[in-house]
Amino acid sequence: MKIQEISSTSTHFAMTEDEALVAYTRLTELGEGEFKIYQIVVDPQYQGKCHGKEIINRVIEFAKPSDAKQIELNAQVSASDIYAKFGFQELGEASSCN
Predict the structure, then answer these.
(1) Can you tell me the distance from the alpha carbon of 63 to that of 61, in angstroms, rounded to the nearest whole number?
(2) Measured distance CA(92)–CA(26) in Å, rounded
(3) Are 38 and 55 in contact (CB under 8 A)?
(4) DSSP string, 8-20
(5) CB 35 within 8 A of CB 57
(6) Is the distance from CB of 26 to CB of 55 less than 8 angstroms?
(7) Full-model pTM
């Protein structure tokens, strides 16, 4: 398994296994020391195998040398327990588009 970091306006993280994309997320710097994680996705075939935890750990470790003071995360309410293990706290109410 390998994790690739792809440069663009955001930093993209792609986790692959046997040439298959198993997890993806991107990190954007919002301002000095402030970051936001977007679009954490894990292929359903690979869920429950700690790939999501591994990619989140990699993103947090990537942000630390930039003196990250705050890392925000948009997430599904159903996954809030997972993110709480990393120290993320719920700050707003969930909304949906109908």
Answers:
(1) 5
(2) 21
(3) no
(4) SSSEEEEEEETTE
(5) no
(6) no
(7) 0.76
Residues paired with 11 in a beta bridge? 7, 27
What does the block give as tokens for 20?
A: 């298959």
Share of the chain above pLDDT 90, in %: 28
Q: What is the pLDDT of residues 54-79, one digit of tens each?
A: 999 999 999 888 888 888 888 777 77
User: What mean pLDDT, rounded, does the chain reach?
Assistant: 82
Residue with tokens 């990699």: 58
Q: Coil, strand or helix: which one is 27? A: strand
Locate 67 and state its tokens.
Answer: 């003196």
Q: How far apart are alpha carbons 37 and 27 in whole angstroms?
A: 5
pLDDT single digits (tens) 32-46:
888 889 888 999 999
Helices (H) and strands (E) in the chain, counts: 2, 5
